[in-house]
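Example 3.
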Amino acid sequence: MKTVYITRREHFNAAHKLWRPDWSEEKNDEVFGKCSNKNWHGHNFYIFVTVKGKPSDDTGFVINLKDLSKIMKEHVVEALDHKNLNLDVPFMAGILASTENLAIKIWEQIEEPIKEAGGELVKIKLEETENNYVEYFGGNEPF
Amino acid sequence: MKTVYITRREHFNAAHKLWRPDWSEEKNDEVFGKCSNKNWHGHNFYIFVTVKGKPSDDTGFVINLKDLSKIMKEHVVEALDHKNLNLDVPFMAGILASTENLAIKIWEQIEEPIKEAGGELVKIKLEETENNYVEYFGGNEPF
Amino acid sequence: MKTVYITRREHFNAAHKLWRPDWSEEKNDEVFGKCSNKNWHGHNFYIFVTVKGKPSDDTGFVINLKDLSKIMKEHVVEALDHKNLNLDVPFMAGILASTENLAIKIWEQIEEPIKEAGGELVKIKLEETENNYVEYFGGNEPF
Amino acid sequence: MKTVYITRREHFNAAHKLWRPDWSEEKNDEVFGKCSNKNWHGHNFYIFVTVKGKPSDDTGFVINLKDLSKIMKEHVVEALDHKNLNLDVPFMAGILASTENLAIKIWEQIEEPIKEAGGELVKIKLEETENNYVEYFGGNEPF
Amino acid sequence: MKTVYITRREHFNAAHKLWRPDWSEEKNDEVFGKCSNKNWHGHNFYIFVTVKGKPSDDTGFVINLKDLSKIMKEHVVEALDHKNLNLDVPFMAGILASTENLAIKIWEQIEEPIKEAGGELVKIKLEETENNYVEYFGGNEPF
Amino acid sequence: MKTVYITRREHFNAAHKLWRPDWSEEKNDEVFGKCSNKNWHGHNFYIFVTVKGKPSDDTGFVINLKDLSKIMKEHVVEALDHKNLNLDVPFMAGILASTENLAIKIWEQIEEPIKEAGGELVKIKLEETENNYVEYFGGNEPF
């Protein structure tokens, strides 16, 4: 049996803004544009988590998707769904709520739980709109 | 030539919450659930506007999509994109920011401009997530 | 306040076959083609349920989507998800498992519960593949 | 048994331009914008054809989708796929190649064959891009 | 000219179940959940096949998509469409019908025919639902 | 901070044909099939551009998507949207208008502008239809 990659999608709807309190309103607007609107805006985010491994002889699974989905719901969806990324999320405190930074922090929440479930997290894809998304491989650079 | 319906899609990303200040936090939570999160949440909204009419002999158009798109951008996208539906939008002031109410108010913004451009607005579809949307026919009930 | 239509999507994955035991294998194959494969095949079905009404002054809702989703999960998803439409579903017993018939029977399961929740069911859309779907208006013919 | 609507999707990729030879280049550009580019442009079109009827007691079908698909392939896809709508399509000769006009002409090609197959054509939806589409009900106005 | 990757999508609708005959019903249910339903369930599967190579000076192609599509239809779609993955598919006999295992076995069916057509198979993506898919690189681990 | 990949999608609608003037019509048809239709055909193309880098401490961005979008619009969309790939595009002159070749030439247009904006272009995905796309990593072979 050989290495296979399996991916699970979950989603959450959240508010955020891109804003630095140590910058003037003009500077925030110049850099972040309409994303700096002080009263927030929001998105339907889609999070894709990829785990790699050899399918088990017992189950044919790299990881049981019930387990992976449960981890994603507990550590990502519950923390972020219908929340304000700047105000309501402990693991984003003090961090600019860019999609890039959010992907890195989500990785930190689920890497260990996935390992405990017998899987190896290798990729997160975080889609903010149908026109933009980020991918994070734990800092690795496959290409 | 016979009646044809033409639809244009635009999108906007906005924050909102479902919350009544005259209700307790418990009552708000009971009715609106996680949509009542006091620090807001948000969505990628898709707005579909349908105009009906007979294709022009001159152009083959019911309405020029450049004109329809311009109307939607000026009256809907500019007003709602990267905004807070409860705080930033004059035409939503004092109104519960449900998808239903938002669709009705959007109709009011664009019905007249579309008429001035020679078209007849007959339907708005407002998609909040891939799992829910509302349709509004100006109060008419085609089915 | 004027009439608005609101739609909720849920999904279920099911097996079925199109097969009449009173027909020969040749006749079944001639009419139903590969859909008559005796060992079944299956689909990811998407069910869209539309309720119409006037938005409530209290909530801005035609119907609370939490309630609509709960009705759909109890009466449709629980009955059909990861099931065999021909063998496992009491309300489909003795009925050809075409998408058309399935839509009609789903309507019968949810019309009353939706009415009890204060809503009026007006449309079901049942998508079998990205290339085909049926719509059912309770037997009405809006067009 | 009650009336159900069934829809089949097919697609075709075609070139066209919006251009009137009796207008100047300036006038064409003013009205049709970049759609008037003299060397053509093109789209992936999706055509959705809806037939209504009562499901047959024998088959559970409003119309056999194999038959509907065959009609669409013979009369629409074969005529339009990888073609130039202005130059290669007899039934579009002398007609402005707008999406509206194309939908009307497609209706004329398939209404009779669908009737011969026992079905009643009630709607065509023709999608030009993910941001615009037209609907045609044979000239009827359901809303 | 430099290496380019080209991908073709095809689809098939199939029934399956996750079930081990050497396990009790309880054990099957505990591990495989509703996927173990004894009367089967099913999915609309999408298969994406990626071939890499340098575009030919003669054709601009890495591989002619007509050839790639033909290989996929002969070796994958014909074998799996409207079939039961556990009962009807020789190359899946005796193998747990997980998405992971199915991807590995599909690779074995098409690697050689693609090579004979002058291409190099480098990736299979097999989508079971919009919420989960597997990727297989022939056992390689690009990340 | 670690390496993140960010992707922006834009689209353009264009006409083209696959045709070699030094080949007979028969030979063109044999190799390119209906894509060789002499009067052209067309597509809605989607272009995805991926930039990698470490999120800036100042902005949380790998690259400001406003800048990336502007580069794509100036160098790709303006050059290709509502154009004929064979006739209207200087950087495609004399080159077979296959999706593979187009991806390679698009890379050449935007690699330098992205570098000047502080980013590193690592991948282009060019989608011609929902059934086929190419990926280009600047000639690199990540898998």
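Chains A and D do not touch (no CB pair under 8 Å). The longest strand of chain A covers residues 4-16.
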